[in-house]
Each structure stands twice: as C-alpha cells, then as structure tokens.
C-alpha cells in the first residue's frame, strides 16, 4: 500500500490581485492567507508528516486537504460539517487547495473519524510545537500563562458529553476543555478537550507538566495565573518545583470566608479609599505546607441596621482572596489578577468567532480534532497580525469582515491567475497594506 503525496501545488503564489468594477462573492482574503499558512508556517508539510494519506482508487482527497478545509472554514466563519463541505464548492478554495472537485460532508466526517485518539494527540503536539516556535521567534524572555476552562453546550447524547458542575449548564450535556494562553502573544499554547463532567482542575498538573516540557528553555520567567477553580495544593507544589511565579484566586470556602470576615486585622490603604488588605497563613487538608493567602475587601456601601430602636449603618464589603508567591501586597495582587479577564475574551473569540466547539458530531475524538483545528485557526489569525499594532488589536470578526470575506472573482489569463476585487471596495487601501505586510512577514 503506497502513501499518497499530500503536497499541494501552490498555485496561489501565482495569483495576482487586481481591483475591478465587477462585484462577485466568496472569500478573497484566503488567497493571501494561504501562502502564509503554507509558506511561512509550513502547516501543509506538518500535516503531510503527521497524517500521510493511503493511495487507494477511491481516495480523491488527502488528509491535509481536508484538515486545511476545516481551518479555512473556521477562518471564514463556517461551522458544521455540511457547511465545511459546501466551502469546497468555491472556485478559489478549490484552486488554493488543489482540489479536483468539491468534498462531501461524509468524506470529511469519515476521514476525521479515522484519525481517532492518535490523531487528536498528534494535533495537540503540533499546536504545542508551533506555539513554542512562535515564542522563540518573538524573543520573549518572560511569559504569562493564563489558564482557564470553558463550557461547550451540546444538544443530544454525543460521546463524552455529560452533565457538569458549571452552574449555567447543570441541566444540559457539555464538554469542558482546558485552555492555556500566552498572554503576551494572545495565542493558545495548549488545550485539552474534556468530558463535561470533568471538574475545572482535573488533570491540571499533567497539563502544566506537558506545557513545561515544550516551553523554550531560554525563558527566564513563567508566570502562571488562574481562577479559583485551580486552587490546589498539588498544583502549587508543582509550580514551585518548576520555579514558576503564580497567582491563583482562592475559592472562598466557609472556613476561609469566616476568617476573612470575623478574625482578620485589616490594613487600610491610604491612597485607595474604601480598600483594605490582609494576609494570613493557610494549609488545606491535603497540603504539604502552609502558604500565605492575601485578602482584599472593597467597600461597596452601607446597610441600615437597628439595635434596640437605634439606627446604625454598617459597611458592606466585597471580599477577595489570592494565593501567590509574588512579592506584592493584596491590592497589587488583586489588580494583577484583574488583567486575566482578557483571557476570557480570547476564549470567546475561539468559541464565537472561530466556531470552536460548534462543529459537533457523535464521536468524541472527532469533536476533539474539530475543536483543536478551530484553536489552530485562531492562532493563525493572531500570529498573522501580531507584528503590527494597527492590526493585532482587532478581534477576528473585524479582521475577517474587511480582509477575508471580501467579494472577488478568480480569472485565468495568459496562463496566470488573477484575483479581481471590486474596484471601489471601501477598505481597498487597508487591504493592500496588510497584503504587503503579510507577504513580508
């Protein structure tokens, strides 16, 4: 049995862009992103190596072509297997991926399902390797690792979907992926697709260990930051062993909250009216040692109370608590933790703008692969714009609207291909500027 070559004829390198008075439809920006994806990032060669396609009489498409089609679908805003298949009817997509015909949804589904657990593991390793190389090229010496989890609701009884612990999804089946972002680059460094019944911190030590093995050795500092779902003595032991700085919000169990409210001496901050801080030693039930927890309370108002017919006003506070090895006071820790809210925005981009978790089929490993390919599409979008302040701050939806999903027509003339875009396109100059920057990325 021979392996079919997955090499894609890079016809897009010969596609020139012109602006014309004719208006048509589809996805002109893919013609400029494809040389970046294949030429600069070399993803086609990576997929060729990981997923070689067996040469059979009935084999019309390589696995690389199918995977790239799924990534294209995320970039242009499509989800569901049927819509992914419809994308291959587009003449530009067929040209860019060297497709001799359109794909069927069953072809896509069967091929992805055939990759199985091994395929999802290989894809996970690829995302880690690519992310590591981008950190290397960025010349960062210090990174922030923002870790979070997210709930993906499903309709039906898909494999691995289960009722979970999240208060917003207790009555529906879900998946519960774990995600780690590199804050300085906004990319997803690692992700695990998990069943909905997985608690937030399930597998976190193994997850962080996998990350530490792949991070560039030249990094001098790694700062780990996470919410209260990751409040774990075992995790803190690992982070200290790895010599990472860390900041994790404390889950306010009744004993901790009671201590904050009833037994602490609070220090008022002279420069911050209504804000007080404290710190105290704490050891969880299975912890190997004590750690210092740092508390913050913020005055939010007063409530009226009556004592023997006398009216008094008592202050009402919001309480916060953190476990960290940073040499900062409670308020400084509180402000640092507030910066992780951006990671929640990035998660929503993966899910809402790149359709992560929206292409759901019956098979767990297939759903894992679809999720990871959406994550990879998100990273491609971010990395393609990361070098230029004007473009890197845009959300993917904005970038897609003015650069990717742009009407155009593909024509052949003199053995050359031309992509013609509407002559009076209102983002014409911006489009050309980014096209030139992308060419020299």
User: Using DSSP, what is the number of strands?
Assistant: 17
- As laid out across the biggest beta sheet, the strand order is 9-8-4-10-11-15-14-13-12
The low-pLDDT segments are 1-13, 21-25
Largest sheet, if any?
9 strands, mixed
Strand % is: 15-25%
Global mean pLDDT: 89
Overall geometric form: elongated
Q: What share of residues is helical?
A: 40-55%
Multimeric status of the protein: single chain
Helix segment tally: 15
Structural class: alpha+beta
**Measured on Cα atoms, how large is the radius of gyration?**
26 Å
Cα end-to-end separation: 40 Å
Characterise this structure.
40% of the residues lie in helices and 23% in strands. Strands 9-8-4-10-11-15-14-13-12 form a nine-stranded mixed sheet, sandwiched between helices. Residues 1-13 and 21-25 have low confidence and may be disordered. α3 (63-76) crosses α12, α4 crosses α6 (105-138) and α6 (105-138) crosses α12 (364-385). It has helices at residues 30-40, 43-50, 63-76, 81-87, 91-96, 105-138, 204-214, 233-241, 254-262, 330-338, 341-353, 364-385, 389-392, 396-404, 428-439; strands spanning 3-4, 15-20, 53-54, 142-149, 152-153, 162-163, 173-175, 178-182, 187-192, 221-226, 245-249, 267-268, 275-282, 291-307, 310-324, 408-413, 416-422. It has 441 residues and is α+β, with helices and mostly antiparallel strands. Among the domains are: 3-115 and 363-439, no CATH class; 249-327, no CATH class. β10 (221-226), α8 and β11 form a beta-alpha-beta unit.
């Amino acid at each position: 049995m021979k392996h079919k070559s997955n090499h894609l004829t890079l016809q897009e390198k010969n596609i020139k862009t012109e602006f014309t008075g004719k208006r048509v439809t589809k996805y002109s920006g893919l013609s400029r992103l494809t040389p970046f994806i294949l030429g600069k990032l070399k993803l086609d060669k990576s997929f060729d190596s990981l997923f070689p396609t067996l040469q059979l009489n009935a084999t019309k498409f390589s696995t690389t072509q199918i995977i790239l089609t799924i990534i294209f679908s995320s970039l242009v805003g499509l989800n569901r297997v049927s819509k992914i298949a419809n994308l291959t009817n587009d003449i530009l997509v067929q040209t860019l991926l060297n497709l001799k015909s359109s794909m069927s949804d069953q072809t896509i589904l069967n091929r992805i399902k055939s990759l199985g657990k091994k395929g999802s593991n290989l894809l996970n390793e690829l995302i880690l390797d690519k992310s590591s190389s981008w950190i290397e090229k960025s010349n960062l010496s210090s990174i922030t690792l923002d870790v979070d989890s997210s709930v993906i609701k499903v309709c039906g009884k898909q494999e691995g979907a289960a009722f979970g612990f999240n208060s917003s999804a207790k009555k529906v089946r879900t998946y519960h992926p774990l995600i780690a972002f590199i804050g300085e680059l906004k990319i997803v460094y690692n992700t695990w697709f998990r069943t909905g019944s997985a608690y937030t911190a399930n597998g976190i030590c193994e997850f962080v260990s996998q990350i530490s093995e792949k991070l560039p050795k030249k990094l001098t500092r790694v700062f780990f930051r996470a919410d209260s779902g990751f409040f774990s003595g075992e995790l803190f032991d690992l982070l200290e062993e790895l010599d990472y700085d860390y900041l994790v919000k404390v889950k306010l169990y009744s004993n901790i909250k009671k201590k904050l409210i009833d037994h602490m001496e609070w220090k008022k901050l002279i420069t911050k009216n209504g804000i007080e801080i404290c710190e105290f030693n704490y050891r969880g039930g299975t912890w190997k040692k004590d750690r210092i927890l740092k508390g913050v309370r913020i005055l939010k108002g007063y409530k009226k109370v009556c004592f023997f017919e006398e009216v008094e006003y008592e202050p009402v506070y919001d309480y916060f608590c953190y476990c960290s090895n940073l040499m900062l006071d409670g308020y400084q820790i509180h402000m640092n933790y507030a910066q992780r809210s951006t990671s929640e925005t990035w998660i929503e981009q993966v899910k809402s703008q790149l359709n992560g978790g929206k292409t759901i089929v019956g098979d767990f490993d297939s759903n894992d692969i679809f999720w990871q390919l959406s994550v990879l599409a998100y990273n491609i979008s971010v990395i393609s714009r990361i070098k230029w302040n004007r473009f890197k701050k845009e959300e993917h939806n904005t970038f897609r609207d003015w650069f990717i999903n742009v009407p155009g027509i593909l024509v052949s003339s003199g053995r050359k291909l031309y992509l013609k875009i509407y002559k009076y396109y209102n983002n014409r100059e911006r489009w050309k500027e980014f096209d030139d920057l992308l060419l020299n990325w």
